[in-house]
Inverse folding.
């Protein structure tokens, strides 16, 4: 009797069964790194005397964090990725103009598929659980070793099951569901564990919302987040998958160390207050909080559905005179779709900035850094001290509708408050 | 192996942005990273005040957040001999073993050590001694595979051997 996580891991280490706590060496379907983490991995790879990567078609190097290059040292780091990719003939290097925020780009391009085991030197690699894959964040040294061997060691995690029920209201999406959950269990509430998300509201959630939920599993300390693939998954991958995929499902008698239930009926949009993603409050309690900046984008909420949601709220309104609104579609395909659907006009007419894909402001890199004492509402995933700029700035995390409404109001608020 | 130094106390959920803010991640130079170690924590002058061999003692979930290996690199290059915490975030834990920063899990040590006290960690015996108060604490055992990794000289040495690289 195994969970979906256990089944995927077993299949990748040639075993019929694995149990939590067991150490395994798993074959990897994809290895990922970005312009911040790949440089260390490349140095380690070279220092080990390695001459060849295990498979030039299974290593994705994506310059998205400080790219388009924000300064000379960042340009040097991106250049190292570029050189290494040419040297080893890597087919999955994405240049500026073709790249996107890694965790939005890889599922969109069908480069990660259901049933995969993926590691990435980026903590939000857990995003692909939304597709029914096992994926987890690691450091640069793990990626260096994996680029040589195509394998990684794992301790099979215990699984926690999260069952959602009820009928979520308007403007409630994946972000609110995961914030509510992290608010309940805390930033280490799933430490070393797998988070499996189930229930009717999850089954009805589009792929974008599922990816958002799994994206933030790391914010509860989890090794991975995962959702069983279904018809929605099949439709999403059918026209994208570049490899064969496989759907795994948890056995009915699979063992979970913890099972938690949440009723989403009547739940308000959820906001994580500074300085931890677990400081979650319903939006109505925060109406007195003024903001200086609103960011819509990132690997958490930079997909087309998020762009549409923000545009629907802000259409016909103006960004508050004291607020900068920055909208960043996560990939070039999303950017194009925004143009096609007229969303770019909506944002620009409202007085927002619209940018080429980058992780930029999410981690205080560039494209929207906060000054001392400034405050942002953001659809990103972390609100640690100094996360978006000055150590004396603050970040509130929300869904795209709330970020858009707040941009108009000049304070945290809901779409219903716009006149 | 033994580590001896003064304790610097940090709270719960110390994230990797506090250990090494992302604004400094346009380099992976250990010395440069070390010069900003703990800059966004509650003790921003840590790097100026600490001495070679000193020990970080923290509450639960140390190193949560990003996967950046720059965090354990910054701590190690700063000259911190080891980190003791009630618990460690998963990726930080894995990274520390992979790149060779000694870390020790001990809730009782985190509770029983105050800032500025002299600490000795005996890695072989799995014991942490507070030399100021003369109290002793146990370290949570290191998983067997992690011990194997350490014995091999870290993940890359282990990988080199496995892949037959010289």
């Amino acid at each position: 009797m195994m969970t979906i996580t256990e089944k995927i891991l077993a299949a990748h280490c040639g075993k019929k069964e694995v149990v939590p706590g067991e150490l395994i060496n798993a074959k990897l379907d994809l290895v990922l790194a970005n312009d911040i983490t790949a440089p260390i991995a490349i140095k380690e790879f070279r220092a080990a005397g390695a001459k060849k990567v295990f498979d030039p078609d299974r290593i994705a190097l994506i310059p998205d964090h400080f790219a388009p290059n924000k300064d000379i040292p960042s340009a040097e780091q991106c250049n190292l990725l570029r050189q290494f990719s040419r040297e080893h003939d890597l087919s999955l290097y994405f240049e500026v103009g073709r790249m996107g925020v890694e965790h939005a780009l890889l599922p969109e391009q069908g480069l990660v598929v259901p049933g995969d085991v993926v590691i990435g030197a980026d903590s939000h690699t857990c995003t692909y659980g939304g597709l029914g894959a096992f994926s987890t964040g690691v450091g640069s040294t793990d990626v260096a070793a994996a680029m040589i061997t195509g394998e990684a060691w794992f301790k099979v995690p215990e699984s926690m099951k999260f069952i959602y029920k009820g009928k979520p209201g308007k403007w409630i999406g994946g972000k609110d569901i995961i914030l509510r959950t992290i608010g309940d269990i805390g930033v280490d509430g799933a430490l070393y564990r797998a988070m499996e998300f189930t229930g009717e509201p999850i089954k009805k959630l589009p792929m974008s919302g599922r990816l958002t939920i799994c994206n933030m599993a790391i914010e509860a300390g989890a090794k991975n987040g995962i959702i069983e693939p279904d018809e929605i998954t099949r439709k999403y991958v059918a026209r994208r998958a570049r490899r064969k995929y496989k759907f795994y499902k948890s056995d009915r008698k699979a063992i979970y160390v913890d099972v938690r239930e949440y009723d989403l009926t009547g739940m308000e949009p959820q906001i994580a207050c500074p300085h931890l993603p677990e400081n979650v409050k319903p939006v109505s309690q925060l109406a007195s909080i003024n903001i200086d900046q609103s960011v819509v984008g990132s690997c958490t909420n930079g997909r087309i559905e998020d762009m549409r949601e923000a545009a629907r709220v802000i259409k016909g309104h103006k960004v508050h005179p004291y607020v900068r609104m920055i909208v960043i579609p996560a990939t070039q395909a999303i950017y194009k779709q925004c143009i096609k659907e007229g969303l770019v006009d909506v944002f620009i007419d409202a007085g927002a900035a619209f940018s080429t894909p980058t992780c930029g402001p999410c981690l205080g890199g560039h494209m929207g850094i906060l000054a001392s004492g400034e405050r942002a509402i953001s659809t990103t995933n972390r609100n640690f001290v100094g996360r978006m700029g000055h150590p004396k700035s603050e970040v509130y995390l929300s869904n795209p509708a709330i970020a858009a409404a707040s941009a108009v109001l000049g304070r945290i608020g809901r779409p219903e408050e716009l006149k | 192996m033994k580590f001896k130094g003064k304790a610097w106390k940090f709270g719960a959920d110390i994230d990797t942005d506090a250990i090494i803010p992302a604004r400094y991640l346009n380099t992976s130079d250990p010395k440069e990273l070390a010069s900003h170690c703990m800059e966004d924590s509650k003790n921003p002058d840590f790097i100026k005040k600490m001495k070679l061999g000193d020990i970080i003692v923290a509450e639960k979930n140390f190193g949560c957040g990003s996967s950046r290996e720059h965090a354990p690199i910054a701590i190690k290059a700063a000259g911190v001999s080891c980190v003791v915490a009630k618990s460690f975030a998963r990726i930080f834990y894995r990274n520390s073993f992979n790149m060779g920063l000694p870390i020790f899990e001990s809730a009782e040590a985190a509770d029983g050590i105050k800032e500025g006290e002299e600490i000795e960690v005996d890695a072989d015996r799995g014991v942490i001694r507070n030399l100021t108060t003369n109290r002793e604490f146990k370290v949570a055992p290191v998983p067997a595979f992690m011990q194997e990794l350490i014995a091999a000289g870290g993940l890359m040495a282990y990988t080199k051997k496995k892949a037959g690289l010289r």
About this structure: The two ends of chain B are 27 Å apart (CA to CA). Chain B touches chain A at residues 13, 15, 17-18, 21-23, 25-28, 39-41, 44, 60-61, 64-70, 73, 87, 89-91, 94-95, 98-99, 143, 145, 154-156, 158-160, 162-163, 165-166 (CB under 8 Å). Strands of chain B lie at 2-10, 55-58, 82-85, 103-105, 118-122, 127-130, 135-138. The CA atoms of residues 6 and 137 of chain B lie 16 Å apart.
